[in-house]
Design a protein that fits this description.
binds zinc ion; globular; 3-stranded parallel beta sheet; alpha/beta; 6-stranded parallel beta sheet
Length: 402
C-alpha cells in the first residue's frame, strides 16, 4: 500500500504533463497556423447583459471584454451568448419576459444587426458552415432554469427560438433544481419534475448544462440524461476550491458519458489565492454593511445604501490569475479525464476579474501559444477549442433523433 501511496504522491507533485508532451518554443507563424486551423468555440459570454440595454457589439467597447472587432482579431469561430435571467426576475413573475428579451438581443442586436459577421447557429453543422463562410456562429444558452417558469411548454418555445443549452440553475435554486449557491438545498438535487425537464431537453436536443448547480443536482442530471451533458463555464475544484468548480470525480464521470468541462476564466475559479482574497473582501464588506444597516435602520433604502457604501469602502482584491492558471486547469482535466473532456467557457463580461494574458476576446491566440509551448499538438488544440464541443452537440442532436 505504501508504494501505491508514493506513486500517487509523485503523481500529484510532478508538473501536470502526460507522457509524450514536452515543453518547447514556438514561432509566431506556428501559433497563427494552428490557431486559424481550429474552430474556436466559447460556450459562455455575458456581453448580452449589456447589448440588451443598448451596447453596440459592433463598436469598440474598451470597458468590456467583448466586441466584434476584437472577436475577429481573436479568431473566434462560435460564441454561445448567455441568455442570463437574474433571479430577481422571479419576483413579480418576469422571468419569461426577461428570457425573451435576452433571446431577442442575440437575434436582433447581434446576429440580425451584423449579418455579414455573425450567423445564428442551431446545430454543430451550422457552426462548421459559418466557419467556412468566415463568419462567427452565434448561439443561445439560457442561464437559470427559472426561465421556464416550471413549464415544459416554455422550454419548448425557447428551443424553437434557437436556445441550444440551458444551465439548470443560476446561483439560486428554483422549484426543481438546487444551486451550488444555495445552502438550503430545497430539492435535494433534482426533483421529479426536474428530471422531466432534463428528459424533455434530451428529447428536444438541448444541451443540459450543470455549471452553477449543486453537486447532488449534478449527479442527478448526469444519471437522468440520455445524452452527454456539459459544464458551460466551470473549472477544477482540485485547483481552486470554489463550489462552482467541479471535483475530479465529477469531471471523470461527466467525461465517461461524453461530456465536456468548459474552463471558466474567472480569476477566483482559477487561482486559490485569489479565491481566498475575494472571500476575505466579501466577509469584510458584509460586516461593514451590517454595521451601516443598523445606522440607517430608519431609512426606507437603508439596506441598499449600506450595501453600496460597504462596496465602495472596501476595494476588490488586488490578486489576479494568469494565463498560466488557465493552462493548469486544462492540464488537470487532460490528466484525469483525457483531452476529449476539455473545452472553453470564458465567462467574459460575466466576471469582474479575468487572467493576465487573457484579458479579452482578442487574446485567444495567447492561449494557443501557451498550449503549444506546453507540448499540446495541433490536433489536441483543435479538440479543446472546438471539436469536443461539436462532438457533444452532435451527440445531443442524435440522441434527440435529429
Ligand atoms: Zn454563470
Amino acid at each position: 500500500m505504501k508504494a501505491i501511496a508514493l506513486v500517487f504522491l509523485a503523481a500529484t507533485l510532478l508538473p501536470a504533463q502526460t507522457p509524450g508532451r514536452k515543453k518547447r518554443t514556438v514561432t509566431d507563424a506556428e501559433v497563427q497556423r494552428v490557431h486559424s486551423s481550429a474552430i474556436l468555440i466559447d460556450t459562455h459570454n455575458d456581453v448580452t447583459s449589456q447589448t440588451v440595454t443598448g451596447l453596440d457589439i459592433g463598436g469598440q467597447n474598451p470597458g468590456h471584454h467583448t466586441d466584434l472587432p476584437r472577436m475577429k482579431r481573436g479568431g473566434m469561430g462560435a460564441q454561445f451568448f448567455a441568455v442570463y435571467v437574474a433571479a430577481s426576475y422571479v419576483e413579480g413573475n418576469h422571468a419569461a419576459h426577461r428570457t425573451l428579451e435576452m433571446i431577442d438581443t442575440v437575434r436582433h442586436d447581434i446576429a440580425g444587426k451584423y449579418p455579414a459577421d455573425f450567423m445564428l447557429a442551431l446545430t454543430a453543422e451550422d457552426i462548421r458552415r459559418a466557419h467556412q463562410q468566415h463568419k462567427i456562429a452565434a448561439l443561445l444558452g439560457i442561464e437559470g432554469g427559472h426561465a421556464i417558469e416550471d413549464s415544459l411548454r416554455l422550454l419548448r418555445r425557447y428551443y424553437d427560438e434557437g436556445v441550444r443549452y440551458m444551465t439548470l440553475t443560476h446561483s439560486n435554486s428554483n422549484h426543481w433544481a438546487d444551486s451550488s449557491g444555495d445552502p438550503a438545498q430545497p430539492n435535494n438535487g433534482l426533483s421529479a419534475f426536474g428530471k422531466d425537464v432534463v428528459r424533455e431537453m434530451n428529447r428536444l436536443g438541448m444541451i443540459v448544462d450543470i455549471s452553477h448547480v449543486s453537486d447532488k443536482t449534478f449527479w442527478d442530471a448526469l444519471e437522468t440524461s440520455g445524452a452527454p451533458i456539459f459544464a458551460s463555464h466551470s473549472s477544477c475544484r482540485a485547483l481552486s476550491p470554489a463550489p462552482r468548480n467541479m471535483t475530479d470525480e465529477m469531471i471523470q464521470a461527466l467525461a465517461r458519458k461524453g461530456g465536456v468541462v468548459q474552463v471558466n476564466f474567472s480569476c477566483d475559479f482559477l487561482n486559490p489565492e485569489v479565491l481566498k482574497a475575494g472571500n476575505e473582501v466579501a466577509a469584510r464588506r458584509r460586516a461593514l454593511r451590517d454595521q451601516l444597516a443598523q445606522k440607517y435602520a430608519n431609512q426606507p433604502d437603508g439596506l441598499t445604501r449600506a450595501t453600496n457604501e460597504a462596496q465602495e469602502a472596501i476595494p476588490p482584491p488586488r490578486e489576479r490569475a494568469t494565463l498560466r492558471d488557465v493552462v493548469k486547469h486544462i492540464n488537470h482535466i487532460v490528466e484525469i479525464a483525457g483531452v476529449d473532456a476539455v473545452g472553453l467557457g470564458s465567462d467574459f463580461d460575466g466576471v469582474s476579474c479575468v487572467p493576465e494574458g487573457l484579458e479579452s476576446v482578442e487574446q485567444w491566440p495567447n492561449l494557443t501559444r501557451a498550449l503549444l509551448e506546453e507540448g499540446y499538438t495541433a490536433s489536441d488544440i483543435r479538440k479543446i477549442y472546438g471539436e469536443n464541443s461539436l462532438r457533444l452537440m452532435t451527440a445531443v442532436e442524435r440522441a434527440a433523433g435529429r
